[in-house]
Amino acid sequence: MEAFENEEELLARWESMRPRYRSERDKRTRKGPKAVYLAYDDVFPDYNVDPFVSTPRTQPLEDDVDVAILGAGISGLSVAARLRKAGLKRIRLIDIASDVGGVWYWNRYPGAQCDVESYIYLPLLEELGYVPTEKYAYQPEILAHLQAVAKHFDLYDDACFQAALTAVTWCEEDSRWLIETDKKDRFRSRFLIVTKGPLNRPRLPAVPGLESFAGRAFHTSRWDYDYTGGDANGTLSKLADKRVGIIGTGATAIQAVPHLGASAKSLYVFQRTPSAIFERNNRLTDPEWAASLRPGWQRHRMWNFNSVVEGGSVQEDLVSDGWTNAFTDLPGYLPRPDGEVDATSKFAELADLVKMERVRARVDSIIDNPEVADALKPYYRAFCKRPCFHDEYLDTFNRPNVHLVDTMGQGISEVVPSGVIVDGQLFELDCLVYSTGFEAGTSFTDQSGYDIVGRAGIRLSDKWADGFRTLHGLFSHGFPNCFFTGLTQTAIAVNYNLLAQEQSDHIGYVVEQVLASNEKTIEATQEAENDWCDTMDAKQSWSRQFWDECTPSRFNNEGALDAAHTRMASVYGGGAEEFFAILEEWRDEGSMRGLLSSNR
């Protein structure tokens, strides 16, 4: 505890803060996400229309491919690149968007930018010989790189874009997956890769009257530049005479708010829970540094970053940013040698307090108005909500045209034709922006918008109704030749690209073994799946006590944790490095243990 100057004083401060933390949590508690959010298509079905499409599709696809990949974001592109290296010829990316990119296709709001260093976040940089222009790249550069990946690995010719999945069905008679879409596509595939990311289906606040608003309303992932003017770089010139409201103060809003504040006649920021805002300190890429990079640099940097945020021993923190600083300051959040995580120990709580006091002090140092400053201070444990990084968000509230509307955890009362009502007060608006995130931590079908039917007609939504059931998060019994990526009973990595690469390598290995053995199908055994579920239960990340004490968020099911959500949001508690080591040892062992292959 030598890092603290006066432990007794710190303990007293923590005890005095506990009631404030509990109070802030209690006044925000609802009965689960359905009481807080709505799926966007429940209210605005036209949000399904892609505003960025250039040439509408006309001809349906009816053919046979080697692999169908559901999703064309970072995971889909990563596994497609790995399977191309494995020798698969016909690789079909399928996406409702009209191009690759996933979250970076849809999110074109002003200021959109990665918050994990771009040198480790953008996939396959070495393969393409590319180094991003900034430490934290903006959306146009990220999307352009993902498009370059698709071109490099020749993924456009067989792609199926502008297509919403309507049926994904296993056909026993020919051991193929039948995929159908709303564009009358009907094709078969030997392998199926499900790359449903956690940020793909927008959600809206569950507020009465959303559909009644008479002004212009849109979600940040469907930004209307025809109305606002400008582009992803900002300069929203058409808002100069507009009263704009934005609902939400999470990772998206903190990037968009500075641009709205600089352009709108008046901006009202409706806040339910303030985010913890850390410094970003972005900078341009040093050309000499880029020229000095040697083969293997990206993978080495990715693993170095992951080791730091998991408490590993490294000679140098290569990334050295807000993420690595946040984790090294909070050792109580890191896996212990026994694989457990103790976020409720006295040391962890005190380290957490020191970190969050610095965050709150930063607010005071920037915000001129003491009342606004107090409303912008987060009173909860670090990592109860995703930390945010920005250097202009807080300053925006010093502008005379920018108004923070703190709903004191209660949210908006009602939307009416002329604007938004909070606690009886009407805020008249011309434009309403929903920065309310995406479906996450809910059921598979809620997040993806489709279902998958496996052997004997079993639906994935039924099988996973009480939580994920997989082997290693990648295979599920009853769903042959089907692989899952993303956050299904796997480790979580701050850098999503590391998870995507490791999962892609594992899938590529299994597919290569199936091809070499001339087997028709591969799937997890029931016994292996049960064993992995038991492992996941035993290795749960953090404690129920920690999540129960957190302010409501998508991480704890808006304060309504239950057994199904705990398993649906389960993370391998031993950390990403330990989890990836399990996969590597499994491959080295070579027997495909837990998978059953067949020639039928």
Protein model, in words:
The chain is an alpha/beta fold and 600 residues long. It folds into 2 domains: 291 residues, FAD/NAD(P)-binding domain (3-Layer(bba) Sandwich), CATH 3.50.50; 167 residues, FAD/NAD(P)-binding domain (3-Layer(bba) Sandwich), CATH 3.50.50. The chain is 34% helix and 15% strand. The protein contains 22 helices and 20 strands. Strands 2, 3, 4, 5, 6 and 18 form a 6-stranded mixed beta sheet that branches. Strands 8-17-9-10-13 form a 5-stranded parallel beta sheet, covered by helices on one side. Helix 3 links the parallel strand 2 and strand 3. The longest helix has 22 residues. About 1% of the residues have low confidence.
Shape: globular
Give the termini distance in whole angstroms: 62 Å
For the record, what is the CATH homologous superfamily label of the largest domain? FAD/NAD(P)-binding domain
The overall average pLDDT, rounded, is 88
> What is the count of helical runs?
22
Q: What is the CATH architecture assignment of the largest domain?
A: 3-Layer(bba) Sandwich
Strand content: 5-15%
DSSP strand tally: 20
CATH structural fold name of the largest domain: FAD/NAD(P)-binding domain
**Whole-number total of structural domains:** 2
Q: Give the class from helix and strand content and strand pairing.
A: alpha/beta
Q: Which spans have pLDDT < 50 for at least 5 consecutive residues?
A: 334-340
CATH class of the largest domain, named Alpha Beta
Radius of gyration: 24 Å
The largest sheet, given as strand count, sense and whether it forms a barrel, is: 6 strands, mixed
Determine the fraction of residues in helical runs and give it as a percent range: 25-40%
